[in-house]
């Protein structure tokens, strides 16, 4: 069974046959065979004429690619990144309270990102558009589509509260869309129950009408039991996390977080309306309306406290399939918050003829509170992660256990830069040729913190040039040092300087993957310092947006203005490039191979911290593989080599962990170009660390891993030999296969790197060796009737 990697592949390419036939599955993910092999189990005599085993391909590329509109998922990148931080927890041994606190802190950081996104939408729609621009006659003069909201026309919509109430439909629709998208993608991609909830099918159902459907075969004597069957007395019931029944089915947590985050979004919009109207009522001394505003604010605070309690109160349950749902209080949170939002709309829209909008809308303090809360949560995460790592130190763990906090910081930085940049760009667009908040500007502009966040983008880029330049120099030096090594490895050949430099350069560039932790550490550390500086600068510069550097030296003022303008334009350009690259990655396989690995690593993991993150394709792919393997081995008693390339090797390992012991005994694992240890083992040590991979090797009958030194993604899994089991790794394989032109290779051989492992003769050699090491196929009991003979033949295939 072949499982492709990140770049995706067609079943025709995987099977090397243009006539691939779908055996089972749908257009999203399916299992394919060659037409001659559809009913191979019925004709075991064909094995005598076959050079190798029956090939079967599992194609899952449509789970992460397809329609170009899925590029919009890239806008949810901060949510995906913070979800990754949950899975980067260091290996734990005891310290269960610290482990739970780690999960709580990551979920709180994720909650602040939802509030930040909604607050940014409120800033653009309510503050900049409905409050500032619609309240300025000069701004409306250049924006005719805002004419009906103009305060100069004295119309029904001219009152600030009513303008705000109308503009609130934009962030409300955004939150509603995120809720719908999260619910729909869960049903379409992730609601796949693993084997054990029902008896697996024992039939092969070909899609071609001319292929007969074979009859059910009798079960082999030692047919594997379902994964949820009671364990035998004395059996080891402690399973790795990825082998637990509920790992790939967390319905309750996703539903719980979805309700809480949806409620948080609606409450943020309601708070923006209520604070603005209540501020006006307090200033004018309106007794009844002021009392209503106080009660509504108290209700919003109570509901927000319930949301925080729901987020903190429960984490993932992996030891069993968590298919139940929470009680009425949690399930009805979105409806309750929506009712409060409707009351806030009515309260803000109440007639207040004397109300005039001026300056920035009240409530901009929320951005400072969110930024400060994120800094506090990240620092707490650093303390907890460091404590967990010191308890069980793992030498190969990325950033010494601080990868989770660093990635969470990157998520916060992405959220802050995106919200600050978008708000600044919209303000520039509304203000025309002037600069918001400056001399000649017609609107005050966004809150000063968002202006500071936009201003730090050029500074961050300049800081990134230092480690990027350092890595470039080190790579060049490493390539030069590898030139004589390459020539020695290929034996007595005539030196070709250009060829040697090509091979050495490919190896040096492939080694850049191992430097990613240092780069992430630099970026996250700089983001933390610059974010803290932005919060401090916004507090010291007062509440007037756009005036962050006023009153200082003229040079400093000029630099600050330039940084703010450049940052604003960079975020606008980056936003366009972001969506463009995203669409290209889903349509162009070459572009997908370039940037797809990061996206597929992010969407491999279930949504454990943020329910609005892109859907997890593995919650569909892993049950697919597990069902197919369990059903086929139950029916035929045959042997199977599970062959995974790149990300497919991760899916294969996850599926093997889910198999029952009797089935796992009949499965061999062949991985190549695998990031199991190089990426997953270092960044997700609690799930793919050295101990977990060692145990996977011990549970499998046999496993072999192929790798190349020119591969920037795959590498050795570093599982040593034990007992009669040989070492798992074989490599590095020779790449290119020939140094210069020879009789066998008259044309120059390419440097394959991460691709075409099956073209190497070692692949077929190791696959044959794995089949030889597996136990022989099981034969069902013999019967006298013809059907039993057919069944026996099918089972021995």
UniProtKB/TrEMBL annotation:
<feature type="transmembrane region" description="Helical">
    <location>
        <begin position="101"/>
        <end position="121"/>
    </location>
</feature>
<feature type="transmembrane region" description="Helical">
    <location>
        <begin position="519"/>
        <end position="542"/>
    </location>
</feature>
<feature type="transmembrane region" description="Helical">
    <location>
        <begin position="401"/>
        <end position="423"/>
    </location>
</feature>
<feature type="transmembrane region" description="Helical">
    <location>
        <begin position="365"/>
        <end position="389"/>
    </location>
</feature>
<feature type="transmembrane region" description="Helical">
    <location>
        <begin position="259"/>
        <end position="278"/>
    </location>
</feature>
<feature type="transmembrane region" description="Helical">
    <location>
        <begin position="71"/>
        <end position="89"/>
    </location>
</feature>
<feature type="transmembrane region" description="Helical">
    <location>
        <begin position="452"/>
        <end position="473"/>
    </location>
</feature>
<feature type="transmembrane region" description="Helical">
    <location>
        <begin position="290"/>
        <end position="312"/>
    </location>
</feature>
<feature type="transmembrane region" description="Helical">
    <location>
        <begin position="562"/>
        <end position="582"/>
    </location>
</feature>
<dbReference type="InterPro" id="IPR029058">
    <property type="entry name" value="AB_hydrolase_fold"/>
</dbReference>
<feature type="transmembrane region" description="Helical">
    <location>
        <begin position="333"/>
        <end position="350"/>
    </location>
</feature>
<feature type="transmembrane region" description="Helical">
    <location>
        <begin position="164"/>
        <end position="181"/>
    </location>
</feature>
<feature type="region of interest" description="Disordered">
    <location>
        <begin position="772"/>
        <end position="797"/>
    </location>
</feature>
<protein>
    <recommendedName>
        <fullName>Lipase family protein</fullName>
    </recommendedName>
</protein>
<feature type="region of interest" description="Disordered">
    <location>
        <begin position="191"/>
        <end position="238"/>
    </location>
</feature>
<keyword id="KW-1133">Transmembrane helix</keyword>
<feature type="compositionally biased region" description="Basic and acidic residues">
    <location>
        <begin position="721"/>
        <end position="732"/>
    </location>
</feature>
<keyword id="KW-0812">Transmembrane</keyword>
<feature type="region of interest" description="Disordered">
    <location>
        <begin position="716"/>
        <end position="758"/>
    </location>
</feature>
<keyword id="KW-0472">Membrane</keyword>
<feature type="compositionally biased region" description="Pro residues">
    <location>
        <begin position="209"/>
        <end position="230"/>
    </location>
</feature>
């Amino acid at each position: 069974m072949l499982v492709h990697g990140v770049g995706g592949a067609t079943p025709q390419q995987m099977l090397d046959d243009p006539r691939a036939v779908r055996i089972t599955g749908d257009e999203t993910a399916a299992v394919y065979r060659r037409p001659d092999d559809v009913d191979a189990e019925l004709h075991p005599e064909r094995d005598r004429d076959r050079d190798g085993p029956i090939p079967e391909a599992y194609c899952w590329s449509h789970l992460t690619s397809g329609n170009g509109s899925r590029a919009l998922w890239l806008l949810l990148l901060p949510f995906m990144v913070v979800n990754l931080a949950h899975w980067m927890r260091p290996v734990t041994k005891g310290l269960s309270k610290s482990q739970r606190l780690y999960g709580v802190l990551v979920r709180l950081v994720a909650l602040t990102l939802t509030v930040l996104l909604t607050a940014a939408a409120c800033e653009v729609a309510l503050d900049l558009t409905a409050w500032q621009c619609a309240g300025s006659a000069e701004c409306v003069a250049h924006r005719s589509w805002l004419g009906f909201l103009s305060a100069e026309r004295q119309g029904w919509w001219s009152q600030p509260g009513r303008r705000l109430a109308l503009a609130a439909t934009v962030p409300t629709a955004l939150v509603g869309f995120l809720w719908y998208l999260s619910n729909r993608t869960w049903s379409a991609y992730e609601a796949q129950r693993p084997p054990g909830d029902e008896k697996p099918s024992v039939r092969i159902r070909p899609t071609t009408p001319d292929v007969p459907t074979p009859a059910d075969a009798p079960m082999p004597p030692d047919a594997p039991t379902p994964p949820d069957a009671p364990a035998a007395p004395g059996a080891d019931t402690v399973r790795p996390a990825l082998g637990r029944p509920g790992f790939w089915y967390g319905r309750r947590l996703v539903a719980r977080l979805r309700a809480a985050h949806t409620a948080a979004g609606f409450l943020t919009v309601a708070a923006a309306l209520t604070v603005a109207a209540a501020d006006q009522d307090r200033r004018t001394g309106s007794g009844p309306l002021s009392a209503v505003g106080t009660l509504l604010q108290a209700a919003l605070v109570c509901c927000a406290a319930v949301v925080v309690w729901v987020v903190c109160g429960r984490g993932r349950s992996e030891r069993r399939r968590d298919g139940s749902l929470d009680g009425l209080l949690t399930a009805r949170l979105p409806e309750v918050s929506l009712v409060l939002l409707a009351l806030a709309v009515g309260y803000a829209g109440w007639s207040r003829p004397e109300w005039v909008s001026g300056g920035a809308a009240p409530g901009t303090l929320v951005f400072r509170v969110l930024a400060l809360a994120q800094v506090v949560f990240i620092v707490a995460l650093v303390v907890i992660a460091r404590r967990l790592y010191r308890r069980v130190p793992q030498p190969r763990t990325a950033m010494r256990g601080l990868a989770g906090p660093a990635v969470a910081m990157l998520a916060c930085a992405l959220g802050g830069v995106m919200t600050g940049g978008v708000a600044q760009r919209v303000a520039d667009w509304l203000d025309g040729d002037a600069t918001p908040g400056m001399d000649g500007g017609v609107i005050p502009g966004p809150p000063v913190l968002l202006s500071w966040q936009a201003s730090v983008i050029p500074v961050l880029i300049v800081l990134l040039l230092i480690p990027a330049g350092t890595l470039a120099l080190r790579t060049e030096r490493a390539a030069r040092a590898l030139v004589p090594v390459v020539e020695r490895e290929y034996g007595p050949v005539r030196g070709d300087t250009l060829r040697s430099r090509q091979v050495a350069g490919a190896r040096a560039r492939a080694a850049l993957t191992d430097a990613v932790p240092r780069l992430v550490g630099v970026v996250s550390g700089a983001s933390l310092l610059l974010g803290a500086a932005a919060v401090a600068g916004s507090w010291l510069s007062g509440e007037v947006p756009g005036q962050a550097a006023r009153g200082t030296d003229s040079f400093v003022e000029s630099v600050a203005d330039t940084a703010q303008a450049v940052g604003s334009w960079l975020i606008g350009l980056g936003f366009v490039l972001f969506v463009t690259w995203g669409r290209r990655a889903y349509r162009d396989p070459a572009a997908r191979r370039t940037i797809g690995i990061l996206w597929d690593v992010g969407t491999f993991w279930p949504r454990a911290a943020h329910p609005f993150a892109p859907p997890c394709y593995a919650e569909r792919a892993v049950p697919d593989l597990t069902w197919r393997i369990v059903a086929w081995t139950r029916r035929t008693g045959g042997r199977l080599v599970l062959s995974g390339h790149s990300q497919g090797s991760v899916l294969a390992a996850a599926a093997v962990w889910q198999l029952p012991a009797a089935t796992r005994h009949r499965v061999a694992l062949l991985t190549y170009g695998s990031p199991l240890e190089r990426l997953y083992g270092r960044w997700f040590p609690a799930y793919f660390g050295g101990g977990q991979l060692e145990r996977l090797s011990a549970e499998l009958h046999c496993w072999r891993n192929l790798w190349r030194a020119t591969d920037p993604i795959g590498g050795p899994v570093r599982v040593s030999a034990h007992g009669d089991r040989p070492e798992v790794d074989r490599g590095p394989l020779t790449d290119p296969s020939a140094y210069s032109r020879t009789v066998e290779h008259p044309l120059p051989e390419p440097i394959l790197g991460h691709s075409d492992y099956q073209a190497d003769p070692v692949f077929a050699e190791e696959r044959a060796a794995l089949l030889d090491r597996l136990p022989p196929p099981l034969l069902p009991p013999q019967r006298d009737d013809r059907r039993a003979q057919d069944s026996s033949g099918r089972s021995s295939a």
